[in-house]
Each structure stands twice: as C-alpha cells, then as structure tokens.
Amino acid sequence: MTRFTVNNQPVAYDMGPETPLLWALRDASNLTGTKYGCGTGECGACTVDIDGKAVRSCQVTIAQIEGTFVTTIEGLSQDRSHPVQQALIASNVPQCGYCIPGIVMAASALLREKRDPSDSEIAEAITNLCRCGIYPRLTAAIRQAARIARGDERVTPPPRPGTGPAEAARSVPAIRAEAAEAD
Question: Where does the 2Fe-2S ferredoxin-type domain start and stop, copy by copy (predicted)?
C-alpha cells in the first residue's frame, strides 16, 4: 500500500506501485480537476504540486512519491480565492478550460518561489500547452497574480462555485461595494 498526503488528507492507495499518480488521483480519489492530456508529460494538463514543486502527474508513479505532500487544483482553493485563480478569472484568460488546472498549479508553484517573476521566468516555468492560445493574456495574468499575492493589487472576487447566473449578476455590485469599503 502506497501512502502520502493529498490536499492535506492522508491517503493509502491499494494500487500497483507503478500506477501513475494521475490515475490514482482521478480514479481512486475522484479528483478529476487533474486532467489527462497527452500522457507523455508534454502538455501539462496533469500538473499538480508535490512538496512545493509543479510536477506532471502522468510521469510519476505513486511509489516514487511515497511520503510526500500532493496538492491538486481542488486542494489549492475551493472558492477560487487563490491569487492565480483570481487573476486568470479577472483577465478572462480561460477559454475551453481544459488546460487551466495544470496552468494554475504551475503558476502557483512559480509564485511561491518568485514574488515578482519576469516574463521570461514565467515562460520558462509555464510550459503547459493550450490549444486556445491564451499565452499573451496568461503572462499578464500571472504578473497580476503576483501583485495580488504581494498585496499590491486587489480584484473583485468571482462568484462562488455553484452560483446561478441571476444570483451572480446580483452579487457583483455587492462584492464591489464590499471591496470599496475594505479599502
């Protein structure tokens, strides 16, 4: 049995030790935010955080990460309050959304290491593929996320997950009023 921590919960997988982490997360833990893309580590859709580093989960086995701490997109922030999520939403970066969880995980690892990454540092760290071509907006959004994380900028938080369109439309003025009062 392979044991490690996923999203701050200890887990023990009764799966073959050669099982890729991607499939343990998706099939055994039902953490489907970690996406299967290419299966070769090229696309980055399966990126998770392992002990503070962005790792392509299709390329590591559960035996290789025994005793580690794994964070998936579900464990990063359930209410989309992480600075990277806030910035991507505020900048309208996501399109189809398939690559976004992996990109968010890679960007969050980058911002943990570098509080103010340059465009070239962002390009070097975020090698995830996006068929929609979000790259120019993505770089700007990651720089915005760095400002949010440092406290240099605030954005209006997105509606909570599961909020219906009518409720979301009503909540935007209230959210903006709350943000103005906080300043």
Answer: 1-76
